[in-house]
Amino acid sequence: MHLKNRLSIACGWVAPRFPGSFGATLFLLLVCAFAPTARGRSAPLALCPDNPHYLLFRGKPVFLLGSTEHYGAVLNRDFNDHRYLDALQHDGMNVTRLFSGAYVEPAGAFHIDKNTLAPVAGRLLCPWARAGEAGYANGGGKFDLSRWDQAYFARLRDFVSEAGKRGIVVEVVLFCPYYDERQWTLSPLNSGNNVNGIGTVPRTQANTLTNGNLLAVQDAMVRKIADELKDADNIYYEICNEPYFGGVTLEWQYHILATLRAAEKNLPHRHLAAQNIGNGSQKIQKPNPGVSIFNFHYATPPDAVAVNYGLGRVIADDETGFKGTGDAAYRKEAWEFMLAGGGIFDHLDYSFAVGHEDGSFKFPPTQPGGGGPELRRQFKILASFLAGFDFIHMTPDAAIVRSPLPKGVSAHFLADKGRAYAGYIHGAGCKQVELAIAPGAYKVEWIDVKSGKVREKQEVDFGERHETLTVPAYTQEIALRIVADKPSP
After folding, report:
1. Which CATH number is associated with domain 397-484?
2. Domain residues of the chain, as ranges?
3. What is the pLDDT of residues 224-274, one digit of tens each?
4. DSSP letter at 277?
5. Per-residue model confidence as pLDDT tens digits over 423-464
6. What are phi and psi of 72, to 5 degrees?
7. Cβ distance 234 to 45 under 8 Å?
8. Which of 40, 143, 201, 289 is a good FRET partner for 396, with 20 to 30 A between their CA atoms?
């Protein structure tokens, strides 16, 4: 057996497929569990070597599935971040997303009630220290871009550390475009909000290489955050949220990425970097070799996975919304994206707010998205479903379904050919489905995605020809697990 395979088995990366000596396996298990990495630190989140469409976290392959507050957990002083992380852990979520503080929002932006990215007057915490001069647009002193706020970095480190204790990965978003003048008016990088006279450019020029002396401040912030989080094994960085708005240039994004890489050059580890590509779907033509995770928003249907799967990197849907406040649309988006081969799904959950850090806020129907305990419970069902497979040996397979589906019905499948198949059917009226899978005897379970209960079990012998399965009665969606009695070697 190849050493990598034996290490994978011992560390719990993959289900064992080969015989081996108990003594050797135990030895390797102990090596993985106790051998120190450089300077005694855990190796950070990485691409899974056996399947780089997924991640490797603390010696085990993972997909990330989350339901995240609106990114203000650290910058909003009034937000009880520990209580929030407890809620995520309780609900089985393993990723969250946060903004650095270079960008904040005014109350009422995007029709969000109790927006965590909109601290009340005087309660913004960001990388830069307050100066003695009053005049920040949302209360309190202006910022001094030449001095760091140690309280901010203490809170940032604590948040990442506490997330790590709960097995939660943190996506650290460095920058965000200024969608309109209201956000730029509140940014510490706007010259009206700092005592340094920096940031006199228009908002659409702020995240470009022609932003004057603002670029040096941005670079310094990246270096400082990289140094503060150098020991964290549970983070990855996103260069810029939604850079396709607000004048953000690709050259500036790659400059920020280069700054991050240079900052980590002499550190024990480098952390993965993510690039936000677009809303919906877009084919990536010239991927930057320094990017390991490609982020999309509102990625339904999950075409972004299919058209970019050949890149061999993680494809993520790390923001949802604008489909009402009900659960169904976001549950569907999660199931379809992950069953299409996505490696990260992170729902934007508006039930988290100051005073409701347990995710209990009853948001109004005007909210631009959904969330809440019930939806998180349903996401946990999806997570348990995927974790029940040796998912790193699975790939999306659109050719499994051979029969025409009824109008309005879609199906997505992951396949470990000859061993296991995971499927999700959405849309009413599908009574039979013709599947082409490797010959053999299989056990089939049909699963209610809202309750997690097995609706029906079948035993099917698949021959060389396609086999037709009878779909049990369902309302709008159903999942199926197909596992071989005697898996192929």
Report:
1. 2.60.40.1180
2. 3-35, 46-391, 397-484
3. 999 999 999 999 999 999 999 999 999 999 999 999 999 999 998 899 999
4. E
5. 999 999 999 999 999 999 999 999 999 999 999 999 999 988
6. -105, 20
7. yes
8. 289
